[in-house]
């Protein structure tokens, strides 16, 4: 049996199909461009929002950290300058209930002597001569008094070690100052050169620079604002404390700065006496101090003016320990001043008057051991004509942790980096990340911030648009394909019908014309002509019936109801007709498997439709296996589970593998028989499969090495 598939003729695509393809391509290209632009703009907007959120978190974190530092700096700024000495004179002291003491009679320990702030390593004071002292590391008689009543020797020894380390850091700073200054000058020259070159930038570059400058100006403005707030807070506290200190001391201090300085030097004093003390006593006391100067020589000349009136306390201390010469002890102990070296030091005068002008604390970094930078706060105090530098060395790791804890929730992965350069030479971006109170830059990775949502309304809208467009494209492609297939099927139908109708119509016309003209006079010839006309009319009827059946199947019209019958009864009315068709073609129908048990099985079916299916299969076998060596057509009946299987097998050429998939398509014929070697429309197998499916069964081309084999499957009743 030869091929039953049709030659699907390659036809050129209609013009409108090509236009649809071009239109779809343009729509998709436009949608791709719109999507790309929208996503690009969204990415820019997201980047801008992320940057704004980053800057806001950065700004808020800096404010929190500066707010955490401000109380510490304000507290130290409010500290009087004389507290940077281990002991200083007390005001409003009384010798007895009736006799007030002078300002030099009573000394009290400085609060810094017993200070135990873990964030501050040591307090220090530097003289104009470079001598470094600390109220926490007293020397001489001050050390003996302090260790005897206020602190342990271990504490003073630890403070002394801190002062030694601090002295080394100041020395290292002095050595590197010149080098840093040279580098600053060189960088400034390079910056001026770059500024001259940048004057020729293009308009686009200037626009970008303007946008950057706006952002940088915001950073600088925020930094200056935070610095102003911190400075004002420190000044308010220190100014109020200084004013209260001066006002409180004015009534209790009977001697001004000049008088105390003259008294410390043994010069006559013009100050008024203390309350309740005669002027003669003051003169006698001054004369006694002058005599003490003569007796002690150079030792008395180096008594620190910062410690006037300490002699009574030291004398009492030495007297209690069995000393015989109090004046000599005073000279020996005060020779070391409040410093750590053995060089006599003339400390600034402790004074509580408008001549004392403390400056603002400034944070700076000193080169520490191991390359680590150490943070110190220093202020310049103007005492009369003398200048001293006071400050404290900060425990930077501990302070940094305390400060960072206030901003952990905003920037969990942030850190602080010391900045050695002056704020005047720093770029605006760096200034925007610097603390106002400490020269430290807040370092934070942008990735540490919480990322925004991955999905957005714009993306949802784009996705919906793409889905709609793709659905429209798929629908359009489907419609175009269906239209193309319909056009191809119409062409195949017209070609097949025209081909099939041409032969019988030609025969009808020729034979009828010959009979009408009386050209056929023999009775036998007339009978043959009449039989030929009858056969051709039957062929025309079958063609028309096949087309009508296919049209009815396409419209889905209902068929006749199914009747319950047995396999034997159904095949008894079908098999004789099949055998007759086979014998006409010179073939024999070999029926197998029709046993009594099989014949008794019942099924609900339509005998006419089953007959049409089997007749079409036998006719195809007769057409394509006519010239085969084996003239048999096997008709095998089988029952498998609850199905009846009827196999029709011939021994013709069979169906090529390349055409087996299209064999059941309407109006399809094989390449070898598409041009009339075997008559037919190409509707037979398509109609047979459709009829089998209407009966609840199936029709399939099963594998067979030689020839073709079709299997009809029908459901049986239980």
Q: Any key phrases for this structure?
A:
alpha+beta; six-stranded antiparallel sheet; 17 strands; single chain; 718 residues; rod-shaped; Heat Shock Protein 90
Which residues sit in consecutive blocks of at least 5 with pLDDT less than 50?
1-12, 200-204, 247-352
Overall mean pLDDT score? 74
Shape, principal axes of CA atoms: rod-shaped
Q: What Rg, in angstroms, do the CA atoms define? A: 59 Å
Largest sheet: 6 strands, antiparallel
Tally the beta strands: 17
Range of helix content: 40-55%
Q: How many separate structural domains?
A: 2
Terminal CA distance reads: 36 Å
Please state roughly what percent of the residues sit in beta strands, choosing from under 5%, 5-15%, 15-25%, 25-35%, 35-45% or over 45%: 5-15%
Q: List the total number of helices.
A: 18
Structural class: alpha+beta
């Amino acid at each position: 049996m030869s091929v039953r598939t049709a030659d699907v003729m390659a036809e050129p695509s209609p013009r409108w199909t090509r236009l649809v393809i071009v239109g779809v391509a343009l729509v998709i290209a436009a949608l791709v461009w719109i999507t790309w632009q929208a996503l690009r703009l969204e990415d820019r907007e997201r980047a801008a929002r992320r940057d704004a959120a980053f800057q806001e978190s950065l700004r808020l974190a800096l404010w929190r950290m500066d707010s955490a530092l401000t109380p510490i700096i304000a507290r130290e700024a409010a500290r009087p300058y004389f507290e940077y000495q281990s002991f200083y004179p007390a005001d409003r002291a009384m010798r007895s209930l009736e006799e007030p003491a002078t300002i030099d009679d009573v000394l009290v320990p400085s609060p810094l002597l017993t200070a135990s702030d873990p964030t501050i390593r040591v307090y220090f004071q530097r003289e104009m001569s470079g001598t470094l002292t600390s109220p926490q590391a007293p020397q001489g008689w001050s050390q003996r008094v302090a260790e005897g009543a206020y602190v342990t020797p271990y504490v003073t020894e630890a403070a002394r070690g801190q002062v030694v380390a601090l002295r080394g850091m100041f020395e290292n700073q002095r050595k590197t100052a010149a080098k840093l200054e040279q580098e600053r000058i060189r960088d400034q020259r390079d910056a001026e050169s770059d500024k001259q070159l940048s004057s020729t930038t293009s308009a686009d570059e200037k626009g970008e620079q303007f946008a950057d400058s706006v952002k940088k100006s915001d950073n600088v403005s925020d930094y200056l604002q935070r610095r102003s707030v911190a400075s004002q807070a420190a000044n308010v506290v220190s100014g109020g404390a200084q004013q209260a200190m001066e006002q409180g001391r004015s009534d209790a201090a009977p001697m001004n700065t000049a008088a105390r300085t003259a008294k410390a030097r043994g010069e006559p004093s013009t100050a008024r006496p203390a309350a309740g003390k005669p002027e003669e006593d003051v003169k006698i006391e001054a004369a006694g101090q002058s005599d003490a100067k003569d007796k002690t020589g150079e030792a008395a000349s180096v008594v620190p003016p910062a410690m006037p009136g300490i002699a009574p306390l030291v004398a009492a201390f030495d007297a209690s320990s069995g000393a015989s010469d109090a004046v000599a002890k005073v000279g020996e102990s005060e020779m070391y001043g409040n410093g750590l070296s053995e060089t006599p030091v003339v400390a600034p005068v402790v004074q509580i008057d408008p001549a004392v002008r403390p400056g603002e604390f400034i944070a700076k970094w000193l080169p520490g051991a191991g390359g680590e930078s150490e943070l110190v706060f220093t202020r310049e105090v103007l005492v009369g004509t003398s200048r001293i530098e006071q400050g404290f060395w900060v425990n930077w790791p501990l302070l940094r942790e305390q400060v960072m804890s206030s901003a952990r929730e905003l920037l969990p992965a942030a850190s602080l980096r010391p900045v050695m350069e002056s704020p005047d030479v720093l770029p605006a971006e760096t200034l925007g990340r610097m603390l106002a109170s400490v020269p430290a830059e807040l370092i934070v990775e942008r990735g540490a911030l919480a990322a925004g949502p991955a999905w957005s309304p714009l993306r949802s809208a784009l996705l919906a648009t793409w889905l709609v467009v793709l659905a429209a494209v798929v629908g359009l492609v489907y419609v175009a394909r269906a239209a193309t297939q319909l056009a191809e099927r119409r062409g195949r139908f017209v070609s097949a019908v025209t081909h099939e109708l041409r032969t019988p119509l030609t025969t009808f016309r020729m034979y009828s014309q010959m009979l009408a003209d009386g050209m056929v006079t023999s009775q036998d010839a007339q009978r043959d002509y009449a039989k030929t006309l009858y056969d051709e009319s039957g062929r025309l009827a079958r063609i028309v019936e096949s087309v009508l059946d296919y049209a009815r199947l396409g419209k889905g019209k209902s068929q006749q109801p199914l009747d319950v019958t047995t396999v034997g009864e159904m095949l008894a009315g079908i098999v004789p007709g099949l055998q007759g068709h086979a014998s006409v073609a010179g073939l024999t129908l070999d029926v197998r498997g029709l046993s009594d048990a099989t014949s008794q099985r019942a099924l609900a079916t339509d005998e006419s439709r089953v007959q049409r299916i089997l007749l079409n299969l036998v006719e195809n076998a007769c057409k394509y296996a006519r010239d085969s060596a084996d003239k048999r057509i096997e008709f095998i009946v089988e029952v498998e589970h609850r199905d009846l299987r009827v196999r029709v097998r011939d021994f013709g050429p069979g169906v090529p593998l390349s055409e087996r998939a299209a064999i059941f398509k309407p109006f399809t014929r094989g390449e070898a028989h598409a041009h009339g070697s075997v008559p037919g429309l190409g509707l037979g197998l398509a109609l047979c499969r459709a009829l089998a499916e209407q009966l609840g069964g199936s029709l399939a081309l099963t594998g067979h090495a030689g020839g073709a084999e079709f299997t009809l499957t029908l459901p049986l009743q239980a």
